[in-house]
Each structure stands twice: as structure tokens, then as C-alpha cells.
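Render this sequence as a predicted structure.
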Amino acid sequence: MAMRTGRHLWRVAKKEEDEFYERYLEGRRDEEGYGPIESPPPHPNPSRRITASQVLKSEWGREIKICKAGEEGL
């Protein structure tokens, strides 16, 4: 959901611990259960796809934390 919306919608994905997650689940549920978040387009257009460079430059990408081994290039 963070990648889709560009922000975090809830703190913890447990309805007992996060009211925003609980409301999200309630809003998505119908009589058949939970459908997919979104349907993919019938013919994806690769020219509209975000590049890896754009992801890393985005606010979301800049906030990614890496472990010590990643910092050391292991």
C-alpha cells in the first residue's frame, strides 16, 4: 500500500493494534470477502512504469533504511 499510495496508511497491520488498519479492512470487505487492491490494466504500458532511479529519488525511496551489511557493501 505504501508503494501504491506513496505513504504509510497505518502503523501496524493488526486490527487489534491500529484503528486505521481496522478501518481499511472494514472498507474493503464485501459479502464475498476481500477483493484485490486493484486490477492490473489489460495491457501494461512500460513507458509509464517508474524507473529504479525514480524510486530511489522518491520520498519513499529516500526513507528506506538498510542494515549494517548493506552499508558495508556485503
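Summary. The chain is about 40% helix and 5% strand. The mean pLDDT is 81.
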